[in-house]
Each structure stands twice: as C-alpha cells, then as structure tokens.
Amino acid sequence: MEPGDTTRLFVYGTLRSGAPMHGLIEGEARFVARARFAGRLYDLGAYPGVTDGSSRDVVHGELYELPADRRERILAVLDRYEGRSFERVVRTVHCEDGATIEAFVYLFQGKLRGGRRVRSGDFLDPTAS
C-alpha cells in the first residue's frame, strides 16, 4: 500500500463494535461495513482466533478504514494488543454490499488446544456453536 492510502482493517472479535476492546479503534477508525472472509473461527476462552479456511468457511465481522495520518500509530497499538500469537496479514474481505476489498486481518498463530470451533463464524452471536 502506498503511504497516502487508507488502510482497511477487518475485525472479528474483541475489537468489534460492542465488544470489550472496541475502544482501541473507536474514534480512530471509520466503520465501513459489516463484512466476512474465508477463515475458521475459534473460541479460545477470553478471545477468539481465526485461521485461514476454505471458501466454505466464513468469519463475520466489521470492516474499518484507518486514516493515513494515524495508520501507523493505530496499527502499532493493535500489534501490541494482539501480541505474538497473532500475525497481521492481508486477506480478501467481502462486504455486505458485494464489494470485495483487501484488508488487514489478525490471524491466530498459536496452538488451538482447547479452542472450540465457532461454526457460525460469528464470535459475538450468543447462539453461535
């Protein structure tokens, strides 16, 4: 991405609107749309984790734009928050209006021992299993 570009970020768990850590991006990033991408979602206890998946695997979340003038600071904060168990990568995200966009996603890199697969793909859905 070029220095002047707006960076897009897909969030699927504790950074989503209404989730406990949304304050890290609230007021810093602009909500774009509800979105999804091909991944496998796991409930790891206090937080979720996503791994790459097939086209049949869907993770639901939200897409945000990070302003160019705050992008590096916001990403540095999020990188620290996510820690070494997560890697920031670029993936294709599908918006609810049908648009397809490249966005940063934090993929889980740790061990999935004890992690429960969330087959609905929506970590904030209380009926998810």
Keywords summarizing the entry:
5-stranded antiparallel sheet, Hypothetical upf0131 protein ytfp, 9% helix, 3-stranded antiparallel sheet, 129 residues, mainly beta
Tell me what the structure shows.
It is built from one helix and eight strands, in the order βββββαβββ. It has one helix at residues 71-82, and strands at 7-11, 30-37, 39-43, 48-52, 59-66, 86-95, 100-108, 116-117. The mean pLDDT is 91. By secondary structure, the protein is mostly beta strands. Helix content is 9%, strand content 40%. It starts with 6 loop residues before the first strand and ends in a 12-residue tail after the last strand. It has a single domain (7-117), classed as Gamma-glutamyl cyclotransferase-like (Hypothetical upf0131 protein ytfp), CATH 3.10.490. The strands form two sheets. It has a five-stranded antiparallel β-sheet, covered by helices on one side. Strands 4-3-8 form a three-stranded antiparallel β-sheet, with no helix packed on it.
